[in-house]
Specification:
The structure is a homodimer. By secondary structure, chain A is α+β, with helices and mostly antiparallel strands. Chain A has four helices and three strands. The first copy, chain A, has a three-stranded antiparallel β-sheet with strand order 1-3-2. In chain A, β2 and β3 form a beta hairpin. In chain A, α1 crosses α3. Chain A starts with 7 loop residues before the first helix and ends in a 7-residue tail after the last helix. The structure holds a DNA duplex.
Chain lengths: 99, 99
DNA sequence: ATCATCGGAAAGTCTAGACTTACCGTTCGT
DNA sequence: ACGAACGGTAAGTCTAGACTTTCCGATGAT
Protein backbone atom coordinates (compact mmCIF):
# COMPACT_ATOMS: atom_id res chain seq x y z
CA UNK A 1 0.00 0.00 0.00
CA UNK A 2 2.71 2.46 0.96
CA UNK A 3 4.54 1.27 -2.13
CA UNK A 4 1.43 1.96 -4.20
CA UNK A 5 1.07 5.50 -2.87
CA UNK A 6 4.82 6.02 -2.92
CA UNK A 7 4.68 7.16 -6.54
CA UNK A 8 3.64 10.71 -7.41
CA UNK A 9 1.78 9.78 -10.58
CA UNK A 10 -0.22 7.15 -8.74
CA UNK A 11 -1.11 9.65 -6.06
CA UNK A 12 -2.38 11.96 -8.81
CA UNK A 13 -4.53 9.18 -10.22
CA UNK A 14 -5.79 8.40 -6.75
CA UNK A 15 -6.84 11.99 -6.17
CA UNK A 16 -8.41 12.24 -9.60
CA UNK A 17 -10.53 9.21 -8.84
CA UNK A 18 -11.47 10.72 -5.49
CA UNK A 19 -13.30 13.42 -7.45
CA UNK A 20 -15.33 10.77 -9.23
CA UNK A 21 -15.12 7.66 -11.42
CA UNK A 22 -13.27 8.04 -14.69
CA UNK A 23 -12.28 5.99 -17.69
CA UNK A 24 -8.65 5.26 -18.47
CA UNK A 25 -8.52 7.72 -21.34
CA UNK A 26 -10.08 10.45 -19.23
CA UNK A 27 -7.50 9.95 -16.52
CA UNK A 28 -4.66 10.00 -19.01
CA UNK A 29 -6.00 13.22 -20.53
CA UNK A 30 -5.46 14.99 -17.20
CA UNK A 31 -1.94 13.68 -16.72
CA UNK A 32 1.34 14.26 -18.55
CA UNK A 33 1.80 10.55 -19.26
CA UNK A 34 0.55 8.18 -21.93
CA UNK A 35 -2.53 6.02 -21.62
CA UNK A 36 -0.69 2.70 -21.26
CA UNK A 37 1.32 4.21 -18.41
CA UNK A 38 -1.95 5.00 -16.65
CA UNK A 39 -3.10 1.46 -17.31
CA UNK A 40 -0.03 0.10 -15.60
CA UNK A 41 -0.46 2.37 -12.60
CA UNK A 42 -4.10 1.37 -12.32
CA UNK A 43 -3.00 -2.24 -12.18
CA UNK A 44 -0.80 -1.49 -9.19
CA UNK A 45 -3.51 0.51 -7.46
CA UNK A 46 -5.94 -2.31 -8.10
CA UNK A 47 -3.61 -4.90 -6.61
CA UNK A 48 -3.31 -2.69 -3.55
CA UNK A 49 -7.10 -2.69 -3.45
CA UNK A 50 -7.23 1.07 -3.61
CA UNK A 51 -9.34 1.15 -6.76
CA UNK A 52 -11.77 -1.09 -8.61
CA UNK A 53 -13.05 -1.12 -12.16
CA UNK A 54 -16.30 -1.93 -13.91
CA UNK A 55 -16.72 -2.56 -17.60
CA UNK A 56 -19.16 -0.21 -19.31
CA UNK A 57 -19.34 -1.17 -22.93
CA UNK A 58 -15.83 -0.95 -24.29
CA UNK A 59 -14.86 1.48 -21.58
CA UNK A 60 -13.38 0.65 -18.20
CA UNK A 61 -14.55 2.96 -15.47
CA UNK A 62 -12.25 3.09 -12.46
CA UNK A 63 -13.26 4.32 -9.03
CA UNK A 64 -11.95 4.26 -5.50
CA UNK A 65 -12.79 0.99 -3.78
CA UNK A 66 -14.48 1.85 -0.46
CA UNK A 67 -14.10 -1.66 0.92
CA UNK A 68 -10.43 -1.95 0.02
CA UNK A 69 -9.90 1.61 1.17
CA UNK A 70 -11.14 0.75 4.63
CA UNK A 71 -8.93 -2.32 4.82
CA UNK A 72 -5.91 -0.37 3.66
CA UNK A 73 -6.61 2.39 6.13
CA UNK A 74 -6.84 -0.20 8.89
CA UNK A 75 -3.48 -1.59 7.89
CA UNK A 76 -1.90 1.84 7.95
CA UNK A 77 -3.35 2.71 11.34
CA UNK A 78 -2.04 -0.55 12.72
CA UNK A 79 1.40 0.11 11.28
CA UNK A 80 1.42 3.61 12.64
CA UNK A 81 -0.02 2.94 16.08
CA UNK A 82 2.29 0.00 16.57
CA UNK A 83 5.23 2.30 15.93
CA UNK A 84 3.89 4.96 18.26
CA UNK A 85 3.15 2.48 21.03
CA UNK A 86 6.58 0.93 20.85
CA UNK A 87 8.12 4.38 20.81
CA UNK A 88 6.15 5.52 23.85
CA UNK A 89 7.26 2.44 25.72
CA UNK A 90 10.87 2.97 24.72
CA UNK A 91 10.74 6.48 26.12
CA UNK A 92 9.54 5.18 29.48
CA UNK A 93 12.25 2.61 29.95
CA UNK A 94 15.76 4.05 30.03
CA UNK A 95 17.97 2.15 27.57
CA UNK A 96 19.71 -0.60 29.48
CA UNK A 97 23.32 -1.54 28.87
CA UNK A 98 24.40 -5.11 28.23
CA UNK A 99 27.60 -5.51 30.29
CA UNK B 1 6.27 11.63 3.52
CA UNK B 2 4.67 8.89 1.43
CA UNK B 3 7.82 8.97 -0.64
CA UNK B 4 9.89 8.51 2.51
CA UNK B 5 7.86 5.52 3.67
CA UNK B 6 7.55 4.21 0.13
CA UNK B 7 10.86 2.37 0.46
CA UNK B 8 11.00 -0.99 2.25
CA UNK B 9 14.42 -0.40 3.82
CA UNK B 10 13.32 2.95 5.21
CA UNK B 11 10.23 1.34 6.68
CA UNK B 12 12.51 -1.18 8.39
CA UNK B 13 14.62 1.61 9.84
CA UNK B 14 11.48 3.39 10.94
CA UNK B 15 10.23 0.32 12.77
CA UNK B 16 13.63 -0.32 14.31
CA UNK B 17 13.65 3.19 15.71
CA UNK B 18 10.13 2.69 17.02
CA UNK B 19 11.61 0.09 19.39
CA UNK B 20 14.03 2.68 20.74
CA UNK B 21 16.81 5.10 19.80
CA UNK B 22 19.80 3.63 18.02
CA UNK B 23 23.10 4.71 16.53
CA UNK B 24 23.76 4.45 12.82
CA UNK B 25 26.03 1.44 13.19
CA UNK B 26 23.50 -0.35 15.37
CA UNK B 27 20.79 0.15 12.79
CA UNK B 28 23.02 -1.06 9.99
CA UNK B 29 23.90 -4.17 12.00
CA UNK B 30 20.25 -5.24 11.95
CA UNK B 31 19.84 -4.66 8.23
CA UNK B 32 21.27 -6.32 5.12
CA UNK B 33 22.72 -3.05 3.84
CA UNK B 34 25.92 -1.12 4.48
CA UNK B 35 26.29 1.66 7.01
CA UNK B 36 26.52 4.51 4.47
CA UNK B 37 23.29 3.28 2.89
CA UNK B 38 21.61 3.60 6.27
CA UNK B 39 23.08 7.08 6.59
CA UNK B 40 21.50 8.09 3.30
CA UNK B 41 18.13 6.69 4.28
CA UNK B 42 18.28 8.49 7.61
CA UNK B 43 18.86 11.71 5.73
CA UNK B 44 15.62 11.18 3.79
CA UNK B 45 13.70 10.25 6.92
CA UNK B 46 15.07 13.32 8.64
CA UNK B 47 14.00 15.61 5.81
CA UNK B 48 10.54 14.10 6.08
CA UNK B 49 10.69 14.95 9.78
CA UNK B 50 10.05 11.36 10.74
CA UNK B 51 13.26 11.06 12.76
CA UNK B 52 15.69 13.30 14.60
CA UNK B 53 19.25 12.84 15.76
CA UNK B 54 21.34 13.94 18.71
CA UNK B 55 25.09 13.82 18.92
CA UNK B 56 26.44 11.75 21.81
CA UNK B 57 30.19 11.91 21.71
CA UNK B 58 31.23 10.61 18.34
CA UNK B 59 27.99 8.69 17.98
CA UNK B 60 24.79 9.91 16.39
CA UNK B 61 21.72 8.56 18.09
CA UNK B 62 18.61 8.59 15.94
CA UNK B 63 15.06 8.37 17.25
CA UNK B 64 11.53 8.94 16.03
CA UNK B 65 10.60 12.61 16.15
CA UNK B 66 7.29 12.88 18.06
CA UNK B 67 6.65 16.42 16.91
CA UNK B 68 7.36 15.73 13.26
CA UNK B 69 5.44 12.49 13.56
CA UNK B 70 2.34 14.32 14.63
CA UNK B 71 2.66 16.80 11.79
CA UNK B 72 3.19 14.05 9.28
CA UNK B 73 0.25 12.12 10.61
CA UNK B 74 -1.88 15.22 10.28
CA UNK B 75 -0.82 15.63 6.68
CA UNK B 76 -1.70 12.05 5.91
CA UNK B 77 -5.10 12.26 7.58
CA UNK B 78 -5.84 15.37 5.60
CA UNK B 79 -4.78 13.72 2.36
CA UNK B 80 -6.87 10.68 3.13
CA UNK B 81 -9.98 12.39 4.44
CA UNK B 82 -9.97 14.82 1.56
CA UNK B 83 -10.04 11.87 -0.81
CA UNK B 84 -12.80 10.15 1.12
CA UNK B 85 -14.92 13.29 1.34
CA UNK B 86 -14.62 14.00 -2.37
CA UNK B 87 -15.41 10.40 -3.10
CA UNK B 88 -18.49 10.40 -0.89
CA UNK B 89 -19.72 13.53 -2.61
CA UNK B 90 -19.09 12.04 -6.04
CA UNK B 91 -21.22 9.05 -5.13
CA UNK B 92 -24.13 11.31 -4.20
CA UNK B 93 -24.18 13.29 -7.40
CA UNK B 94 -24.82 11.22 -10.53
CA UNK B 95 -22.12 11.94 -13.14
CA UNK B 96 -23.44 14.64 -15.43
CA UNK B 97 -22.89 14.60 -19.18
CA UNK B 98 -21.48 17.58 -21.05
CA UNK B 99 -23.53 17.77 -24.26
C1' DA C 1 49.88 13.99 20.87
C1' DT C 2 48.33 9.92 18.79
C1' DC C 3 45.40 6.46 17.60
C1' DA C 4 40.87 4.41 17.03
C1' DT C 5 35.96 4.82 16.29
C1' DC C 6 32.02 6.87 14.35
C1' DG C 7 29.41 8.74 10.69
C1' DG C 8 28.69 11.97 6.84
C1' DA C 9 30.16 13.13 1.80
C1' DA C 10 31.72 11.95 -2.74
C1' DA C 11 31.89 9.17 -6.69
C1' DG C 12 30.58 5.36 -9.29
C1' DT C 13 27.63 1.10 -10.35
C1' DC C 14 23.50 -1.25 -11.23
C1' DT C 15 18.81 -2.46 -10.99
C1' DA C 16 13.79 -1.59 -10.37
C1' DG C 17 10.31 0.46 -12.39
C1' DA C 18 8.25 4.51 -14.86
C1' DC C 19 7.66 5.51 -19.40
C1' DT C 20 7.26 4.91 -24.46
C1' DT C 21 5.58 2.81 -29.04
C1' DA C 22 3.43 -0.93 -31.29
C1' DC C 23 0.19 -4.42 -31.39
C1' DC C 24 -3.77 -7.11 -30.60
C1' DG C 25 -8.61 -8.43 -28.68
C1' DT C 26 -13.13 -6.79 -27.53
C1' DT C 27 -17.24 -4.15 -27.87
C1' DC C 28 -20.28 -0.78 -29.93
C1' DG C 29 -22.36 1.74 -33.86
C1' DT C 30 -23.99 1.88 -38.54
C1' DA D 1 -20.42 -7.40 -41.43
C1' DC D 2 -17.18 -3.87 -41.08
C1' DG D 3 -14.89 -0.06 -39.08
C1' DA D 4 -13.78 2.69 -35.07
C1' DA D 5 -12.89 3.46 -30.22
C1' DC D 6 -11.22 1.75 -25.93
C1' DG D 7 -7.88 -0.44 -23.12
C1' DG D 8 -4.79 -4.25 -21.71
C1' DT D 9 -0.23 -6.53 -22.97
C1' DA D 10 4.43 -6.93 -24.80
C1' DA D 11 8.85 -5.31 -25.62
C1' DG D 12 12.28 -2.02 -25.26
C1' DT D 13 14.40 2.39 -23.33
C1' DC D 14 16.03 5.29 -19.85
C1' DT D 15 16.39 7.52 -15.56
C1' DA D 16 15.87 7.91 -10.46
C1' DG D 17 17.63 6.26 -6.65
C1' DA D 18 19.32 2.31 -3.74
C1' DC D 19 23.61 0.51 -2.93
C1' DT D 20 28.64 0.05 -2.76
C1' DT D 21 33.59 1.40 -1.69
C1' DT D 22 36.60 5.04 -0.51
C1' DC D 23 37.87 8.90 1.88
C1' DC D 24 37.94 12.45 5.45
C1' DG D 25 36.67 15.32 9.51
C1' DA D 26 35.43 15.15 14.30
C1' DT D 27 35.35 13.26 18.86
C1' DG D 28 37.03 10.35 22.73
C1' DA D 29 40.47 7.41 24.96
C1' DT D 30 45.23 6.34 26.48
Amino acid sequence: MLDALGDATRRSIFELLAAGPRSVAEIAADLPVSRPAVSQHLKVLKEARLVSSTAVGTRRVYALDPQGLAAVRGYFDQFWNHALAAFAQAVEQPPEETP
